[in-house]
Write a structure and sequence with these properties.
Largest sheet: 3 strands, antiparallel
CATH superfamily: Glycoprotein, Type 4 Pilin
CATH class: Alpha Beta
Number of helices: 4
Shape: elongated
Number of strands: 3
Helix content: 40-55%
Distance between the termini: 74 Å
Amino acid sequence: MNVRDNIETGKRGQVAGRAARRRGFSLIELTLVLAIMGVLIAVASFNLLGQGEKAKTRATQTTMATIRTALDQYNLDNSAFPPDLATLQAAKLLDANKPLKDGWNRDLVYDPRGRSREQPYILGSNGSDGMAGTEDDISVWTVK
């Protein structure tokens, strides 16, 4: 006869009584489990929220790289950069059905006059805050 048989038959009354009383979880155990779950959810949501901004930044960089290729092609064909980005769509260098927006669904910044010989045009995004001249701005010349 093993211990389990003794508990089931009640030969060890003290152990059997404790087992009979302990059918559920105590309030402390439930509170501890809920606290652990809360911490895990907080950590996971913090990590996931940061990924959304990274994805929007990466989408903007990819869009600008595509536009940069189209601008270079237009310049080769016409010996000048287009007056606006819509001209690239009219010239069928970019898909006319795809909006020329950044990851935050705002218009990209374009100026064909540029800043220097190395940067013959300005193409960028005002970033997540939508304000020009801030740290989160993205320029086609800094995209890797």
